[in-house]
Amino acid sequence: MSLFKKIFSTQKKESLDKGLEKTKTNFLSKLSKAVVGKSKVDDDVLDNLEEVLVSSDVGVNTTLKIIDRIEARVSKDKYLGVDELNVILREEIAGLLSETNSGNETEFTVPLARKPYVIMVVGVNGVGKTTTIGKLAYQFKKQGLKVVLGAADTFRAAAIDQLQVWADRVEVPIIKQNMGSDPASVAFDTLSSALKQNADVVIIDTAGRLHNKVNLMNELTKVKRVMQKVVEGTPDEVLLVLDGSTGQNAFEQAKQFTKATEVTSLAVTKLDGTAKGGVVIGISDQFQIPVKYIGVGEGMDDLQVFNKVEFVDSFFSKKE
Fold it and tell me: What is the CATH number that goes with domain 10-99?
């Protein structure tokens, strides 16, 4: 590994540790209280642990899975001390994440067997969708890839303007039309332009309203159908952006969008400002959709490729 790679990895890990600080402090504090006065993992400790996980926004179903796994280990090993609980939890959560996430990725890359690679981004307004698109464009460009943005959220003028700001900031082309235009038409123009420019990556923004799920489903289906007229088989990826700070509400958003369209990957944002980072574990497990990116700060490099090993390490690490 080169010295630069080591430095970058260290900086990334420090950013992740800082971004998860509130979640970690809250979780480990609750965990300490759950085992106070206990010497071994018994039914009382497991009941307390269940409460800790649920209150840390891991989600009920995922919590029950984790408790079942720990109960199995207690039964097998006969005696487990509470001082081992941190290690066991760490292992079981990492195991759970492994079932959905390959989790060893560290770089912003896309398969380029066919160009362009098309990402359609979905999510409700206010979750950090536009910011995520901008930071993705920045990261892909940094890898030497040619990126084109498509402003297909034509429902709000602000959405088009915000994406334009990011396009200017990152210095990548953007295809847009006026507010109220047909989103599918914007997507068509974006892919057509990307082909002419020999672009590597296309990122399409879409409307974030959920007030009428039927309309949303129809709109997203139409956008996909029109894109396929330009490049067969697109989009290659449907990325759902969720606000981690909303905790259980993020579960509901994931539920609605997975019903409305075929979501293939997730980005969980705003983890730095919340103690609800456990939601990453629950959402990854419950929806069986890989978490691909996490947002742990406001900086351009604070959108990170999700790495389960680093995440779990930061989640459980204690300050020296």
Answer: 1.20.120.140
